[in-house]
Amino acid sequence: MRNNSTFAALLTKYDNQILVPLSSVCEEFLGVNYRVARRQYAKNRLLIPIVRLSNSQKAPLLVHLEDLACFIELQRSRAKYQ
Questions:
Q1: Helix, strand or coil for residue 62?
Q2: How far is CA 26 from CA 3, 34, 38, in A?
Q3: What local confidence, expressed as pLDDT, does residue 56 receive?
Q4: How far is CA 34 from CA 38, 39, 48, 62, 80, in A?
Q5: Which residues contact 50 (CB under 8 A, 6 or more apart)?
Q6: Which of 20-24, 27-31, 73-77 is the least confident region?
Q7: Bridge-partner residues for 21, per DSSP?
Q8: Residue 58, class by beta-carbon neighbours within 10 Å (0-12 exposed, 13-18 middle, 19+ buried)?
Q9: Burial class (CB in 10 A: 0-12, 13-18, 19+), 7
Q10: pLDDT by residue (tens digit) across 33-60?
Q11: How far apart are CA 61 and CA 82, in angstroms?
């Protein structure tokens, strides 16, 4: 996946950070605000995997850019065939 142009574009957009806060991507890529995204995460209904680096409730919700790139590519391929 790391050869993918979507992944490369996301890396550039987020200054080569592999993990980015959910709050940074939810509106642009998921179409919901952070509050709704957190609620969906709590109910296991968020469309992308989320990473927490500790068990603390205060630990930030993070998105791995490879997962986000896969999600974007999946949405793109679904749109092609509709």
A1: strand
A2: 24, 6, 9
A3: 93
A4: 6, 9, 14, 12, 28
A5: 22, 41, 61, 62, 63
A6: 73-77
A7: 62
A8: exposed
A9: buried
A10: 999 999 999 999 999 999 999 999 899 9
A11: 32
